[in-house]
Amino acid sequence: MWGQANTLTPQEAAEGWLLLFDGNTLFGWTPEGKAEWRVEDGAIVGEGPESGALETNSVFADYIVRWEFRRGGDKRWHTYEIQASGTKFMRREDGKVMRRVKQEPGQKFPSRHISLHRDKNKRTEYRNIRLKPLGLKPIFNGKDLGGWRRVESAKPSKQPPEWSVRDGALHVEGGPGQVETESAWADFILQLEIRTNTSDPNRHPNSGVFFRGEPNGYWSGYEAQIRNEYKDGNREAPVDYGTGAIYRYHAARKVVSNDNEYFTMTVTAHGRHLATWVNGYPVADWTDPNPEGTNVRKKEAKLAAGTISLQAHDPTTDLDFRNIRIAELPK
Length: 331
Hints:
Elements: H1 10-15, E1 18-19, E2 29-33, E3 36-40, E4 43-47, E5 52-60, E6 63-71, E7 78-85, E8 88-93, E9 96-102, E10 112-118, E11 124-133, E12 137-138, E13 148-151, E14 162-166, E15 169-173, E16 177-181, E17 188-196, E18 207-213, E19 222-226, E20 263-270, E21 273-278, E22 281-287, E23 307-312, E24 318-328
Antiparallel strand pairs: 1-11, 2-5, 3-4, 4-11, 5-10, 6-7, 6-11, 7-8, 8-9, 12-24, 13-16, 14-15, 15-24, 16-23, 17-20, 17-24, 18-19, 18-23, 20-21, 21-22
């Protein structure tokens, strides 16, 4: 059905597809029940005498999710697809529609985890598990800063940031500073394309996407880090947490993106659980254990709605942001 197992093409990544299984680990998943789960030859394998499930830590609302599976001693992989959108739900196996459900008007399907199941005493294998969020709406019009406002540092910079729109992208040079949305979100899925521009291979622009920020608050809320630098040629050794990290709390497990190339970042926030993907690869999955409050830097879990901000970090900042879109996750 797909090319190389457990990977996305550049086009799929740009379209917003996410790998829920990285092909090597159970990162981002939690078992439910007594089934035994492990990774073997690029597949998630469920075995043992007991039934059970494996669930994503993240939840999703409107989406298409696809995977391949086989049971027992089957040699052939079967395909499975679920599409949940608004009031409609559809399930396919091997391309055949097995179930359709339509809710009453106004009764949308709730946010939910994606679950893999297995029966007692029956080996079950899953691979190529991928999901595309649906229903995301643009929050940047590609023409001007309508819907956004500038927030400046309390200490004036010798080189304040310059925000402009070029070829449909929000461009910034200089800093420090930020722009933030006039609207606020609590639980959501955010996707955007980012390019960090540099002519020096030893200089990697630093920036971030802040969320659940305080309106007109400077660099407030959680931060999904942007920095495509890693140590000694090892992408699994990020510098300064790395692109896709939940800054200060959860380092990126791998630096996927490169400078001077657009990459897609996905951020999900649902209650205390936060997760990120870069070019569709899962890089952060974290649940905030701190007491609820309003100041993330003081180790308080902020659960209330807040703004989305784009950071201009310092005078060497040179970035482009485009195709910024978001969908609210129902409680």
